[in-house]
Amino acid sequence: MTDHPRGSGPRAAALHLARALGSSALKASLLKAAGSKTLQRQMTKNPLARRVAGRFIAGDALTDAVEVVRRLNASGASASLDYLGENTDSDAQARAATVAYLAALDSIRDERLDAEVSVKLTALGLDVRPALAIEEAARVAARAKETHTFVAIDMESHDYVDRTLASLDTLRRAYDNLGVCVQAYLYRTPDDLERLIDWQVRVRLVKGAYREPSEVAYPDKASVDRAFARLLERLMEAGAYPMIATHDPRLLRLTKKLAGRYQRDRDTFEFQMLYGVRRDLQQKILEEGYRVRVYVPYGGQWYPYFMRRLAEQPANLYFFLSHLAKA
Ligand SMILES: Cc1cc2nc3c(=O)[nH]c(=O)nc-3n(C[C@H](O)[C@H](O)[C@H](O)COP(=O)(O)OP(=O)(O)OC[C@H]3O[C@@H](n4cnc5c(N)ncnc54)[C@H](O)[C@@H]3O)c2cc1C
Q1: Mutation choice for ligand 1 from 182, 183, 248, 309, CB with most ligand atoms inside 8 A
Q2: 121 C-alpha to center of ligand 1: Å?
Q3: How many CB atoms lie within 10 A of CB 224?
Q4: Which among 50, 82, 127, 154 is annotated as catalytic?
Q5: Tens digits of residue pLDDT in 117-142
Q6: Pairing with 326, which of 156, 170, 231, 309 sits 20 to 30 Å away (CA)?
Q7: pTM passes above 0.85
């Protein structure tokens, strides 16, 4: 018997399609769609899509993000501001992204926010030429230094890892307020982590959010989780200031256990989570007395970020499709 969706109409059909695809094929399709410029144009113009994306994005304007950071700070959490945008293809766009970050840093200083910034080097011109991204990131790091805060460099797809780490190697010689993200799903990450431990920079450990081939990344969740646990132990043992970025309750418990084993005070590492994801867990960890930093994205270029969030959790897609179908 064919498994027909219960009910009719676009919502039922969409849900049926999503279920029929299965979660790993669905994830791959969503991550592929994240790179589509055509879909990006269509979705960004759609007010309903924008509203649904608002679960994960503070708003279009810096003032929206500042408002969210104020609320987070009042609850005891720190923040990291991410001005959305990636893969810029001109000097002018890269400079515009820098200007947005300088404004964010000025707000952090003027409003006395407990916040740092997160940057993607492709937003600052890495695809145009690495020297441009380094120059722009240096301007952001210099302003962050004046503001007494940090700059975390996000990690993008595997093609960018060498260029990102090489840029960081140049930048860290002039700025000591930089950190970088590493992705547990990449086979190369244990070696990268040893270099970063040598450099004594702050490291954010994540599972990894991009569509990667099995030649470079573990294809299955169980292997990624095990890789995360191994990297976590090494980071808690030797890292300068581990930033454990996950919502996985098992890995949060393991972090607390490792903090005990390696006698880490609670001000020598932090948990990081995404705006709009597992707020209950963010609050619980704060109440237990740990440091929590929430990653707060804002700006008009929300499409690829939103698609990666949909891909992480199939339930998000059902939520999104049901809103679209109701419209
Ligand atoms: C602060 C921060 C910065 C990040 N920076 C980067 C980066 O620079 N590069 C990069 O590749 N990746 C980055 N990521 C994303 C990361 O790689 C993962 O894709 C993401 O965190 C989901 O993985 P997880 O560790 O929470 O574990 P999962 O096993 O995916 O999720 C564990 C649980 O968390 C909840 N959850 C997770 N994601 C969602 C979601 N989207 N919606 C609703 N619930 C969800 C669910 O309850 C799920 O069961 C970042 C993540 C965080 C928290």
Answers
A1: 248
A2: 20
A3: 18
A4: 154
A5: 999 999 999 999 999 999 999 999 99
A6: 309
A7: yes
